[in-house]
Each structure stands twice: as structure tokens, then as C-alpha cells.
Amino acid sequence: MTTSRTVLVTGGNRGIGRAIAERMIADGHRVAVTARSGEGPEGALTVRAEMTDAASIDAAFTEIEAQLGPVEVVVANAGITRDTLLLRMTEEEFTSVIDTNLTGTFRVVKRAAKGLLKGRFGRVILISSVVGLYGSPGQINYSSSKAALVGFARSLTRELGGRGITANVIAPGFIETDMTAALPEEQQRQYLSSIPANRFGQVAEIAGAASFLAGDDAAYISGAVIPVDGGLGMGH
Ligand SMILES: NC(=O)c1ccc[n+]([C@@H]2O[C@H](COP(=O)([O-])OP(=O)(O)OC[C@H]3O[C@@H](n4cnc5c(N)ncnc54)[C@H](OP(=O)(O)O)[C@@H]3O)[C@@H](O)[C@H]2O)c1
């Protein structure tokens, strides 16, 4: 058993975020999820929030604080892809992905930080991607946003590490969700051939890493990048 915490997962209505929320509930935490559409899993408080809008994130935190208490574990999971090759990528396609994946994470963690400092406890878990450090054609926008989360977590560790707050990155490989189902079959086959585990990952396998990072056993782990990718990124 681990200490019960108040956990927020962004983008908890589907995919990896939903699986993380389910696992956190099973671990005995009080769990809130943000969603733009739909609902989080049974047992979670669902609040509306748009990652590109700081006011909506502020309102979501205020509602969670009123119903569950201050947020102690933040899982910044909401993210998008808008894949295309550099020469075809518009500036809007670049900045919209950065705005959701990177600036959205900044908005969420900044809003959470005061409460974490006050409680002298915090676990910040950022959902990056293997392609942040591995690179991927057609994903200059996405991989840039995901690589930046490593610097984010490490700078946060240096700023707040002395106040009982840790910040870590999970770097999933190819996980079966709506996001990856949208990839062309040929690209899916190519990925599969380069994954040493010879299979795609399951959302529950990301949730397991998040569960560990939120738990008592991970108190001295900070600034780490934890790959959950079947060996694709070879530890990066
Ligand atoms: N699947 C993979 O193989 C893989 C691999 C590496 C990393 N990741 C990362 O893992 C995270 C989750 O991915 P997934 O595969 O579960 O994706 P998904 O099934 O496409 O779900 C994305 C989630 O993010 C939310 N979201 C997107 N843009 C948002 C915005 N502007 N404001 C608020 N919420 C927003 C979505 O909400 P709505 O339902 O309302 O759109 C949804 O809950 C992402 O950060 C992704 O980059 C995934």
C-alpha cells in the first residue's frame, strides 16, 4: 500500500490518461481527470479543461480543490499530434502542437505549484514520448514538444527538489490508442519491425510506471526519463 494522494490526470477521458486514472483509483488515490469531451473512469471526478486556455485550467483546479483537496500528484498527459513533413508543415501546425503539449503542461504545472509548495509534497509526472529523443520523420512539431518536457522536468527538479517535490518524465513508445490507430498501416509495420519486444505497448503498461512514480517508493527519483517502449529507444 502507498499513501493516498489527490491525483490529477489531464486528458483522462480516453487512451493513456484514462488508464492512468483507472490505475490511480485502484491504488487508493482520490482522482480527478480533465476532459474536453466525455467522462473519466468510474470513481474519478471529471472536470472540463482546455490545455490551451489558462483560465479553464485554473477553474478546473479550483473545482478539484473544493471537492478533493489540494492536488498532490499531477500527471500532464493531454497531448496531440499533427504530423507532416517539415517542408509541408505550416507555422500553425507547429505552434498548435507546442501550445497543447508543452505550453499546456506549463499552464497545468504552474497552477499546481503553489499547492505543492504549501503541502511540501508533490509528484509531477510528464507524459513525453520515445520520439522526443529518438526523432521521427513528420513529427518535428511533436518531437520538439516532447523533448522539451525533459528540460522542463529537470529544471523543475532543480527549482523545487528541496521542497519534497519530484518531477519525472515517462517516455512511452508505440502504445495502442486512438492516436496510434490513426497512423498509416505501413508506418505501423515499420515501427513494429524496430521494436525489440516485437509488439506494441498497452495503456496499462504506461499506467504502471505512473503508479510507481506517484507512490511512496519513488520519493528519491527526480529528473528521470523512464522509457516504456519495449526497447525501441534503448533507454533514452
Ligand atoms: N499512444 C502512443 O503511442 C503514445 C506514445 C508516446 C506518447 N504518447 C503521449 O501520451 C499522451 C496520451 O496519448 P494517447 O495516445 O492516450 O492520446 P489520445 O487517445 O489521442 O488522447 C489524447 C487526450 O488528450 C486530450 N487533449 C488533447 N488536446 C487537448 C487540449 N487542447 N485540451 C485538453 N485536452 C486535450 C484529449 O481530450 P479529447 O478527448 O477531449 O480530445 C484526450 O483525452 C499524449 O501526450 C501523447 O503524446 C502517446
UniProtKB/TrEMBL annotation:
Q: Cite the Gene3D superfamilies for this sequence.
A: NAD(P)-binding Rossmann-like Domain
* Molecular-function GO terms, alphabetical: oxidoreductase activity
Spans through the membrane? none
Superkingdom of the source?
Answer: Bacteria
The record ties this protein, via Pfam families, to:
adh_short_C2
Sorted keywords for this record are: Oxidoreductase
**Residues annotated as domain Ketoreductase:** 5-178
Into which family does the record put it?
Answer: Belongs to the short-chain dehydrogenases/reductases (SDR) family.
- Which NCBIfam families does this UniProt record tie to the protein? PRK12826.1-2 (NF009466)
Please report the name of this protein according to its UniProt entry: Beta-ketoacyl-ACP reductase
